[in-house]
Write a structure and sequence with these properties.
The protein contains 15 helices and 13 strands. The protein is α/β, with parallel strands linked by helices. The protein has 2 domains: about 240 residues, Alkaline Phosphatase, subunit A; about 130 residues, no CATH class. Strands 9-8-10-1-11-12-2-13 form an 8-stranded mixed β-sheet, with helices on both faces. Strands 3, 4, 5, 6 and 7 form a 5-stranded antiparallel β-sheet that branches. Helix 5 packs across helix 10. The longest helix has 26 residues.
Length: about 400
């Protein structure tokens, strides 16, 4: 590795609000983060606004922004990006929708009066969820609607000659009665209702309930959009890039941007993902001729959606101790010149269990520069630094020194 290398470590949703049980600290400020504590003294920290005005605060818009793509220009919907990742052959007339397999309450009430309990069905495995989705496909798939298996609870529905509809994200309405958030399109609504009837008594879900696990008992459609068109990352920024993520959305962005996509065994988007494997994949990519690596870790976001303070703190500690620490130690040992950007894409506050559009803290480290600060990396001190990037898509130019 002779030329300077560039790395983003993206802790999805790890920004938060001060939490009383953490002594008024945010999870980032409270977590034990020796690697970030060391780097912060040698780095620029500040705040960056990743969500353009008027756009929803999703990982789709936010990660496009962090990767240097202005969402107002390049965003065409979330699910089409995921469809790219799993090789769905989208036509220009197709509409892609995210198909979450969620947990709804199974109360003895009409479907519209049920509550959504868990947007991820207890972080169900891809293998189990594929069994359930295949049961839905047997009855509901046809020339107009086709289902594709993704990762864990995250799957894809392609609607031939469809329409882009405004559909509700399931993690925005946890513990709420679902009636007012259901699709207005009659056939999408029918498929959601019918999927519940197909899945709620499926043997796999019966077994999950016996084990105290949330059943994956209903399809929930959202994130509709058209086939995306991204400028190639290498053409746009002059760097050959590699994406390391367990999440189909991020892989899809990379496919659309003609970046490399690493395959990491055991990477699942949950708290117990293969952090070491992701770190190794980034280092290997930088050894193998790539100039830029984007390491995306979904766990803080998932723990935020779960409303678990303890598990969100643990996810941030894992990110620090199993990704950032080993990564920087190895690069330093090899004498590599590199620039490292650490940041979330958006906040996922424990209090709300969903995303917000608030600005997030960033840390920008350059191994060739000598900085000397007393600050630590967290929301409060990043805001106090006075450094502010108003448009998130400009952050990539800051990293790449362009």
């Amino acid at each position: 590795m002779s030329e300077k290398k560039y790395i983003v470590v993206l802790g999805d949703g790890m920004a938060d609000e001060p939490i009383e049980s953490l002594g008024g600290k945010t999870p980032i400020a409270y977590a034990s983060t020796p690697a970030l504590d060391r780097l912060s003294k040698l780095s620029e920290i500040g705040m960056v606004h990743t969500i353009p005005e008027g756009m929803k605060p999703g990982s789709d818009t936010a990660n496009l922004s962090v990767l240097g793509y202005d969402p107002k220009i390049y965003y065409s919907g979330r699910s089409p990006l995921e469809a790219l990742s799993i090789g769905v052959p989208m036509k220009d007339t197709d509409i892609a929708l995210r198909c979450n397999i969620v947990t709804i309450s199974e109360d003895d009430v009409p479907f519209e009066e049920q509550k959504i309990i868990d947007h991820s069905s207890g972080e169900i495995s891809t293998e189990d969820c594929a069994v359930l989705l295949n049961e839905v496909k047997k009855e509901l798939e046809n020339e107009t609607y086709q289902f594709y298996v993704g990762t864990s609870y995250r799957h894809c529905l392609i609607w031939n000659q469809g329409r882009v509809l405004d559909l509700t994200q399931p993690h925005d309405v946890l513990e709420q009665v679902i009636g007012q958030y259901l699709p207005t399109d009659e056939h999408l609504l029918y498929m959601m209702k019918r999927s519940y009837e197909i899945l709620k008594d499926h043997p796999l879900n019966v077994e999950r309930k016996k084990k105290g696990l949330n059943p994956a008992n209903c399809c929930w459609f959202w994130g509709a959009g058209t086939r995306p068109s991204l400028a190639p990352f290498e053409e746009k920024y002059g760097k050959k890039g590699m994406m390391i993520s367990a999440v189909d959305l991020l892989k899809g962005i990379a496919v659309g941007a003609k970046m490399g996509v690493a395959s990491v065994e055991g990477a699942n988007g949950g708290l117990n993902t293969n952090y070491e494997g992701k770190t190794r994949a980034a280092i290997d990519a930088l050894h193998d001729g790539y100039d830029f690596a984007y390491i995306h870790v979904e766990a803080p976001d998932e723990m935020g959606h779960q409303g678990s303070v303890e598990r969100k703190v643990k996810a941030i500690e894992y990110l620090d101790q199993r990704v950032i620490g080993p990564l920087t130690q190895e690069l330093d040992k090899e004498g590599v010149d590199y620039r490292l950007l650490v940041m979330p894409d958006h906040p996922t506050p424990i209090r709300l269990r969903t995303h917000t559009a608030d600005s997030v803290p960033y840390l920008l480290f350059d191994s060739t520069k000598k900085e000397d600060h007393i600050w630590n990396y967290n929301e409060e001190e990043a805001a106090q630094s006075g450094n502010f990037v108003a448009h998130g898509h400009e952050m990539m130019k800051e990293l790449l020194e362009q």
